[in-house]
Design goal:
By secondary structure, this protein is an alpha/beta fold. Helices cover about 45% and strands about 15% of the residues. The strands form 3 sheets. The chain has an 8-stranded mixed sheet, with helices on both faces.
Length: about 500
């Protein structure tokens, strides 16, 4: 058995015995071919590793390197066939990175996290091979992102020492993530390790000062003083759980235990971890859940749910809603749909009327692009420009000025919004979602709605103009319409209490 370890300084073992040789380019080539898979042309590898040599010299170097690699490990781990080079299928090779990717792809978060012992090819570089260095950089960043996703899922499923271990891994990945420091402080305090929680605060404070010249945020200081004073912490966030919707895993949480089930259907982006890191949003959720059993989830493709490689349809979201309801034993529920979640809620209601006892629609519309009979949606030209702006600046606070005007200059909110975009999706994935949103049109379904319906809309909403809400209310039989003051599109932004009060 040949084993290739790429987390940390690269090394090779044959039958559990380390192979020691000073063939950096041979080791780098084996790592590249093993991780990328498939066959690679001789010219591609020769150019990657000997870019400064002419083609004849580079190919000669490649032949010698292959020979020396196979001699060193004692088996023909790389084989040349015609003009291509690939792994020898007859050689039994185990690669830690490939095992990590396999565990990650099958949602085995703990197995994946346990394999990640150090950075990909830590301390290893080939200064004269820019192509390899670029590949090493992007592979490392992708593995770090997948580890972050794995750890985020794990932390909600474990407690005690395991939670501490995975949170410390997250801090190792990003020492400046203050929210993770706070989470670790909470875990320490909840398990009776108050001194460790206070030390974690001091560590966070030191890192922020050394790296950014900044002080901890008010919420971090407040948590520190709460723990130091021995006061009880706020109610812990609910556990994230998973249910399969078809072949896709959907992340969900349950809050409260009231007599009515309310399923909250988010807009185009969400992340179940991050909703607990913005105080006004936490207040909205806890207030709403004091009256009902509130069920929140990340739709497929975003947040903590599976990435799917394409845009989810309204029918996909309908399936996810039903899967989550089944998982929590909810036979009938009120659907609370915001923005893009509104049409998905309407499709669910019309398809499964026996599962829905009421409908709340906030900041949404029946159609998401303008036509001659629906002037309240943006024209295609404006939608495409907004689309391009979001993609060009994804991961920054892009769009915050129209999504929550009242908090656009709040540093915490700007940072939170940027993190929501980064962790909630990627530019490539969100592009497909935004393209699909432009095709939404549920006008023909509105007359079929036969449950109590409440339509909420802010009069100066900059994302969904108020005409959208008025159209819904006038075309849904018996709908109650409440027009709210303000211009925030986010339901908990600005004047959040009217939304809570109305609902």
């Amino acid at each position: 058995m040949l084993k290739l370890y790429l987390f940390g300084p690269p090394r090779i073992e044959v039958d559990q015995q380390p192979i020691d040789f000073n063939l950096k380019k041979a080791l780098a080539m084996l790592a590249y071919v093993a991780v990328e898979g498939n066959a690679h042309s001789r010219d591609t590898l020769a150019t990657m590793f000997w870019a400064d040599s002419d083609q004849s010299t580079a190919r000669a170097n490649l032949r010698r390197t292959l020979y020396r690699l196979n001699q060193a490990v004692g088996v023909d781990v790389l084989q040349a066939t015609g003009d291509t080079i690939s792994l020898n299928p007859d050689t039994e090779l185990w690669v830690d990175v490939l095992a990590f990717n396999e565990h990650y792809g099958s949602q085995q978060w703990q197995a994946a996290a346990d394999l990640f012992q150090d950075e990909f090819l830590s301390g290893f570089s080939l200064p004269d091979c820019l192509g390899f260095d670029d590949w090493q950089f992007f592979t490392r960043e992708n593995l770090r992102q997948n580890l972050t996703h794995s750890l985020s899922n794990l932390i909600d499923q474990v407690s005690g020492e395991d939670a501490v271990r995975y949170l410390r891994q997250l801090i190792w990945l990003d020492p400046l993530d203050e929210a993770v420091h706070r989470r670790l402080m909470e875990v320490y305090a909840a398990t009776g390790h108050r001194a460790a929680a206070l030390r974690q605060y001091e560590e966070c404070k030191r890192i922020l000062d050394e790296e950014l010249g900044a002080a901890p945020r008010p919420e971090t200081n407040e948590l520190y003083h709460t723990i130091r004073a021995g006061k009880p912490l706020a109610t812990p966030r609910p556990q994230t759980q998973y249910v399969k919707s078809g072949e896709v895993h959907i992340a969900y949480q349950v809050l409260g235990d009231g007599p009515v089930d309310v399923v909250f259907v988010n807009g185009f982006i969400s992340h179940l971890d991050l909703i607990w890191e913005d105080a006004p949003l936490v207040q909205f959720l806890t207030t709403l859940s004091s009256r009902c059993r509130l069920i929140v989830f990340d739709k497929r493709g975003v947040g903590l749910s599976d990435r799917i490689g394409h845009a989810p349809t309204l029918d996909d979201t309908m399936d996810d809603i039903c899967a989550v309801m089944n998982a929590v034993g909810s036979e009938r529920a009120v659907l609370f749909g915001v923005s893009e979640g509104g049409p998905a809620s309407i499709v669910t209601l019309v398809t499964y009327p026996e599962r829905v006892q009421g409908l709340i629609l906030y900041g949404t519309g029946a159609r998401f692009s303008r036509d001659s009979e629906y002037p309240w949606a943006p024209p295609d030209r404006l939608y495409r420009r907004w689309h391009e702006l979001m993609l060009e600046n994804w991961g920054t606070p892009v769009g915050i000025e129209i999504f929550t005007t009242s908090r656009a200059n709040d540093p915490h909110m700007r940072d939170w919004w940027a993190r929501l975009l980064r962790l909630g999706s990627s530019p490539g994935a969100i592009k497909a979602i935004l393209d699909a949103m432009q095709q939404i049109d549920v006008r023909h379904l509105l007359p079929s709605i036969r449950v109590p319906t409440l339509v909420l809309h802010r009069i100066d909403d900059k994302v969904k103009w108020v005409g959208n809400g008025r159209y819904l209310a006038s075309h849904i039989p018996g709908a109650q319409y409440v027009e709210l003051e303000g211009d925030d599109h986010l339901w908990w932004g600005g004047h959040g209490s009217p939304v809570k009060g109305s609902s």
